[in-house]
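Shipment paperwork, digital attachment
Item: protein structure file
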Amino acid sequence: MIQQALAMVTGPIETARGLPNEHYTDPRVFEEERKALLFANWAAVGIGNDIPQPGDAMPVDFAGMPLLLIRGHDGDIRVFQNTCRHRGMILIEEKCNLRGTIRCPYHSWCYNIDGSLRATPHVGGPGMNFDQHIDRKKLGLFAVRSHVWRDIIFVNVSDRAPPFEEYASELLHRWKEHCHPVYHGGASSGFTFDVACNWKLAVENFCESYHLPWIHPGLNSYSRLEDHYHIEKPGRFAGQGTRVYRQIEGENGECLPDFENLSEFWNEGAEYIALFPNLLMGAQRDHGFAIILLPQGPGRTIERNEIYYSFDPAAHPEYRDLIERNAVQWRSVLEEDIFVIEGMQRGRHGPLFDGGRFSPKMDGPTHIFHSWAASRIVKQRGNGDA
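Attachment content:
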């Protein structure tokens, strides 16, 4: 019966149904999807701006897995499981600078910021810091495969996904004109929502423009529903674009600087894409943004919204007002979606709901995401990994 329900999700959009309710409400299914969707693929967990200086570290709860993001002395970002190899204690509770040492607060086992185990005080008895049965070379922190693109930190927990450049190759090609250095807009350009919904609902809502006239009337007043088009790459990403993008302007018509060497499309166009599983991105001529969805359980998601520019804001205070206004505008637009995704989450507790239907003309990107999720869950069950 369950397999039949998922088969209906992956069918043609004209007859397909959405994912069943339990994929939004059941802790057991959340655990299954954690492995099949989040851990098996390249998922976003943070940004480089979180840890700008060597020795900076930040803990992240990624679908219940404790991670630790660290910038090394070489400037590279590394990700470890935030767990001591001795008794499993959480190592770092708050964002900090490690000053070269990760010290477990329980028994003071110490690690270098490259993850290697450095000290094991009294492990062989009082005053004895060595024991023949404790091989420090084999007890470094568990490293998690990671990659950084456009300041976004990705992890592949299973270590089975293809290289990131291959995994995201079609999006990298599509947005090749935007492959420039990016600079975070500063404190106001990063804001977080704690949302009472399953993370997938945020992806589904972001993918489509069907809801614009009713949920975003201000945005729809100039970038209308009919100005939008679908972006559909089955198995990879989905989203929407607009042919009418309006820049933020100052009182005298001044605008933020564009990214260099963009084609004519970007003069008035913009695109908004969900890179599966949990990253939502926007590309415009003068800025971009990333929305990282951090699942906290079947019915709760931390949504991080981060805005980037083609220039370093710290070096250009003349753009501070425009940056602030842009952040206010995006925060207002994104907040308008919260009651929708939380409302859908509550609706998913209605036992008579059967996954719903898709509009063949309007819901293509959302169906692609549902189909991607369902196919990977079916594959995992077929491999006996559920």
